[in-house]
What we know:
With 711 residues, the chain is an alpha+beta fold. Helix content is 34%, strand content 28%. It contains 20 helices and 29 strands. It starts with a helix and ends with a helix. Mean pLDDT is 96; it is low at 1-11.
Amino acid sequence: xxxxxxxxxxxxxxxxxxxxxxxxxxxxxxxxxxxxxxxxxxxxxxxxxxxxxxxxxxxxxxxxxxxxxxxxxxxxxxxxxxxxxxxxxxxxxxxxxxxxxxxxxxxxxxxxxxxxxxxxxxxxxxxxxxxxxxxxxxxxxxxxxxxxxxxxxxxxxxxxxxxxxxxxxxxxxxxxxxxxxxxxxxxxxxxxxxxxxxxxxxxxxxxxxxxxxxxxxxxxxxxxxxxxxxxxxxxxxxxxxxxxxxxxxxxxxxxxxxxxxxxxxxxxxxxxxxxxxxxxxxxxxxxxxxxxxxxxxxxxxxxxxxxxxxxxxxxxxxxxxxxxxxxxxxxxxxxxxxxxxxxxxxxxxxxxxxxxxxxxxxxxxxxxxxxxxxxxxxxxxxxxxxxxxxxxxxxxxxxxxxxxxxxxxxxxxxxxxxxxxxxxxxxxxxxxxxxxxxxxxxxxxxxxxxxxxxxxxxxxxxxxxxxxxxxxxxxxxxxxxxxxxxxxxxxxxxxxxxxxxxxxxxxxxxxxxxxxxxxxxxxxxxxxxxxxxxxxxxxxxxxxxxxxxxxxxxxxxxxxxxxxxxxxxxxxxxxxxxxxxxxxxxxxxxxxxxxxxxxxxxxxxxxxxxxxxxxxxxxxxxxxxxxxxxxxxxxxxxxxxxxxxxxxxxxxxxxxxxxxxxxxxxxxxxxxxxxxxxxxxxxxxxxxxxxxxxxxxxxxxxxxxxxxxxx
Length: 711
């Protein structure tokens, strides 16, 4: 860090957005971290002994600075053979400054011993919007009162591992590790790497030793202690395990069963085998961060933990895929600074999209990608949004947003589309293998893509990674004298860059599809093409790779109906249904009628909610289709919405459907049946609700409120 930047960081009233967030300076390199820890539940303390091995990065030095938050130190010494030489140090409650016994060169390793007490519960948390606590180590119900389980777990991102062990707590550091945890013998432990030994002690405790033989970043260190049941699976000879609370243990396989398939898919796609000794997933209580991709040991919040009945309605497959993809992008190669978080989170979000494509086909992939696009579009205004690789921010937590996650993922997808899959994945392989066990930034990804393709990708990276915003394309079509003319205006805010966009256009003419390429690179321009007759439909960007918006002038319900039937990508289908949901024309009702048969349940649900039951022409057909969905759809959310829709007719013949629905296993279907029954016999509905067991009642009551609020 330069003196100017350091001075800015220390200024009291400096505008934080004016600070350039430099990649952390490497004065030392971490090499190995050995820890022995035990816990005081009453005080919420960790008692630790640490042997930390380092070397100067390049320049010789006689001092060392470590991140260490809120700790007491009993001894700090350097290990010289069998001798332990006490060292002088200064401490400001966040940074430990140690005077070494002499100058060390970059060719010399040395080991520091630290005997310390960590008191994370006494720290003042620096909470952000995404990561809402930064105390690093958490004691859950340490007094053992009530029904809540007693647990200990850690959360290191962004720089909170230094709340429980001294380290250089920066993402561009990597270290191997050995962690010995002494816990009550009744508890199970989990950490990074492999469990290499367990020793039962005379005082009723047990010491578990976990070894991580490959280097990883300090923020990816983890511990968990508690009453967990372990379900063991496997992938390619490696242990794959799932740690859950005992009452959820019977459902472990149902919750996580796709994990080995995901590991196989990602390994083959990237050409890099899953790199760690094992892969564990643990579900902990009161977790506030969603999930965390600690190396070889992902932590999930309890929302992932579901019973067989809950899994009928929902699962967290996307989260499981996201955290697993991090084991390559984030753990194997780590963003070198939080400014470059896109190298972690954009990729993990992209990994979700790819998994859904592999598991559920192109429609599943496109649905996931569409969701990411909508997430991003909600985060921009008139095309204005933050830069993807941001070197100016108030807090590192600010980087964990829809820019780093969603926008970054669809930028990667667009790059894949432009390069072609073979070149793109070969480029990812080059990036991973070149930077293995190190850190990376977008320019290293760019250089890998250039190495593979032989093409200069700097303009793409400059536009999407190092400049802000996204395009808004206003489009008009005109056909005259055998020519179709497309006029495109980039209408994003004038402060936002003008984009260069290589896109395709599909013309539907006389039952055939004609594809053309265009290059949009001005604020306004026109493209003309000879066509044999006026096109029935024009589909700009048929692959839907644009990271932005397209607004077509004078697009009618008939256009959307043609789009749904004849250019039926997921994007085109959902946009047609969204239009029809707000339009009352006959064509729009026909779109919604088609939507009731859509292969994607979310589009069936949109159509169910929007279709007009007062429209007489197709009413009998619509009611028949809704009844079929209510009884037979494979997705409970579609069944539930069809039940509520039929109840809205007030037709007494559907009361039996409500009664039968209440006997189902799915909470969605039960809640829908009860909601519908209130329209026929409120007293019966109240009685039926009261008769449910507490677990069912807990689940269906909020669902009933949601269904009741639907128009």
